[in-house]
């Protein structure tokens, strides 16, 4: 099989992905998770059939244009492909950085003029000096003047450690991306939101977007962390729940004691299944640890929630850091 990339022709090895073939021949294309999640590596097919797996989770309009993810594309016939401009790029800067907990930073970015998004979507953040790229969900409201990220501090994290002291630095944004976002026009549909770690960020965006839109049905929000001091938005969650009677919150911690009875050692999965609203009618959002997201997605489906109403946003680290 042959791969035609912008006029240059390469032979695809057996079982090789499009991304692997391009890299083997020295072509430079963006990539991050290499597992079909982050949508960082999008390319466009000009001719030939793209396997369905290489377009899973992409917008319908992108699929029609031939946009696909080369990191998971193993062609069964020759393809002619080119770079894609499906994801726009924007210039921004780091406005403010502050700790939310010992392991999580709140990073505020300047919002580029014309940048529009739905609550819960994510962006790709690019460090201009070396084009280091990471994906972060937006915790902001679409009406906010700045963009808020919740960044988990990794001990050897190239981007997170840089961001800790990056106030005033220029950055590039790509996006917005992702379908794990607030769906307008459903004020009477129950919402179930559950996430681990900084998977809370997109849920916070979805929750506040729903409230801003006048959502009237029950909303259940659950968060899990290793210990109570890593429930970095708990106070804000409690304040929102106190102000809106339709909201129920809960949290799970692996160790340590908490004074709030809504925080206990039960697993997040058990908390969700025990206290969730009527699942067949709900819209469900699952974010964070990939094992949790995959497992709960299956549980929600088996409980009667249609797949089209289960929004999943797993955190997948860069392939180079695994």
What does it look like?
The protein has helices at residues 18-24, 60-65, 158-163, 200-212, 234-243, 268-275, 290-302; strands at residues 2-5, 8-11, 43-47, 67-68, 79-83, 89-101, 104-110, 122-127, 132-137, 146-152, 170-177, 191-196, 219-225, 247-253, 263-264, 283-288, 310-314. It is an alpha/beta fold and 322 residues long. A six-stranded antiparallel beta sheet has the order 9-8-11-6-7-10. The longest helix is centred in the middle third of the chain and has 13 residues, at 200-212. The model has no long low-confidence stretch (mean pLDDT 90).
N-end to C-end Cα span: 31 Å
Radius of gyration, taken over Cα atoms and rounded to an integer in Å: 20 Å
Could you report the average pLDDT, rounded to the nearest whole number?
A: 90
Tally of strands: 17
CATH level-4 homologous superfamily of the largest domain: Nucleotide-binding domain of ferredoxin-NADP reductase (FNR) module
Structural class: alpha/beta
CATH arch. level architecture of the largest domain: 3-Layer(aba) Sandwich
Spell the H/E element sequence.
Answer: EEHEHEEEEEEEHEEHEHEEHEHE
Write the layout of secondary structure elements.
Blueprint: E1 2-5, E2 8-11, H1 18-24, E3 43-47, H2 60-65, E4 67-68, E5 79-83, E6 89-101, E7 104-110, E8 122-127, E9 132-137, E10 146-152, H3 158-163, E11 170-177, E12 191-196, H4 200-212, E13 219-225, H5 234-243, E14 247-253, E15 263-264, H6 268-275, E16 283-288, H7 290-302, E17 310-314
Parallel strand pairs: 1-5, 12-13, 12-16, 13-14, 14-15, 16-17
Antiparallel strand pairs: 1-2, 3-4, 3-5, 6-7, 6-11, 7-10, 8-9, 8-11
